[in-house]
Amino acid sequence: ERVDPAAAANPDLHLNRATLLQYLEQFQAALEGLSRAAELAPGWDEPRKRHGNLVEFLSRLCGLLANKGKLRGKRRRGLAGP
């Protein structure tokens, strides 16, 4: 983007960067990149699909973190293994 300002309008660039940021666990920046890619290419469903998947993942993750330690014995043993 710094070398070629026209690249800032490329939705593929934003989608690829958002994917990288997701793997780096920089979720806020990844969501922003996916939103920008969706703005730049309104007819392209992939950025919106990935944005929804990431939001769903983060909400499930928050739910699991909120319920940490609130499992009953049998379920906790099942998760922990033998």
From TrEMBL:
Superkingdom, taxonomy of origin: Eukaryota
UniProt-listed InterPro entries: TPR-like_helical_dom_sf
Protein name per its UniProtKB record: TTC5 protein
Organism field: Origma solitaria
Name of the gene this protein is made from: Ttc5_1
